[in-house]
Write a structure and sequence with these properties.
Keywords: Hydrolase. By secondary structure, this protein is of the alpha/beta class. The chain has eleven helices and eight strands. It has a single domain, classed as Alpha/Beta hydrolase fold, catalytic domain (Rossmann fold).
Length: about 280
């Protein structure tokens, strides 16, 4: 039987089950849906922009904002590569849009209809699509990544793209080996080789860019460890990376600090985008 850090399939299922330790997660996600729908009613949104015509899930929503000089903040939802869509987590842009920042809310295909290799390719298409749209519209074509959970993992695979200026990655798993061994892989179907190839922890990062690795301080220990390990790997490769656990938050409530205009992660994201824009000028 395969194990990871002494944990077998059943133990890994528990270690990565974020919902099990947040009893009201369903109510929270229902609230997110309502708040996202309300946010979309505000002026300034473009919906369902395609980054690959012909695939209905390869799309993003865009709030262009009032600052065309700033890079676009690209948010990608979580859902362990097999659940959720952009409409359910768009509420996270509330504070960012209130400040006038350009914000894109991305979406991707879901396993088992797509492999991890296919998802990695989709992420490159997404980032380039967001950048291209900004360039055509006369805005700053740079992209700052904002990922959550599996969205953090997927966006981390694009750090080397020239369009990417920096990243805030929240509650991600950057080594896919425990995922491969766990029941989560039943839908994804990764081999050892594929999991290794798409694990940011094990990939050399060719270009040094500012990256903030964050997570809720009250999350599952494995999620916290994964973030700390990826941070250490980035620092070892010369990245100006920062580790930023958010006190008194879990895998769900941590997103509230991104949605709130005065929230810790909203402040981090806006400061990061402003510093990167200043660096370009």
């Amino acid at each position: 039987m395969e194990t990871y850090r002494g944990m077998d399939r059943d133990a890994l299922s528990e270690a990565y089950n974020n919902r099990a330790v947040v009893p009201d997660w369903e109510a929270m996600m229902g609230d997110w849906q309502q708040r996202s729908a309300a946010l979309y009613q505000r002026p300034g949104w473009q919906r369902d922009l395609s980054y690959d015509p012909g695939n209905p899930r390869r799309r993003f929503d865009l709030f262009a904002g009032s600052r065309p000089d700033l890079p676009t903040l690209l948010y990608l939802h979580g859902g362990y590569w097999q659940w959720n869509d952009k409409e359910g987590q768009a509420f996270v842009a509330e504070g960012l849009t209130a400040e006038g920042f350009p914000v894109a809310i991305g979406e991707h295909s879901l396993a088992p209809e797509i492999t991890m290799t296919g998802l990695a390719e989709e992420m490159r298409l997404l980032v380039r699509g967001v950048s291209r749209q900004a360039r055509v519209a006369g805005r700053n074509p740079g992209v700052v990544l904002l990922g959550m959970s599996s969205g953090s993992h997927l966006l981390a695979l694009t750090l080397s793209l020239p369009e990417v200026l920096g990243a805030l990655l929240i509650s991600g798993a950057y080594d896919l080996e425990p995922v491969r061994i766990s029941p989560l892989n039943d839908a994804i179907g990764m081999s050892f080789e594929e999991a290794r190839a798409h694990s940011p922890l094990h990939q050399p990062q060719a270009v040094s860019k500012p990256v903030v690795i964050s997570f809720g301080a009250d999350e599952r220990p494995e999620i916290c460890r994964q973030g700390a390990d990826f941070h250490a790997a980035l620092v070892a490769q010369g990245y100006p990376a920062r580790l930023d656990p958010i006190p008194d938050t879990n895998h769900f409530t941590v997103l509230e600090t991104l949605a709130a205009q005065n929230g810790a992660l909203c402040r981090t994201a806006t400061a990061l985008a402003l510093s990167l824009a200043a660096r370009e000028n």
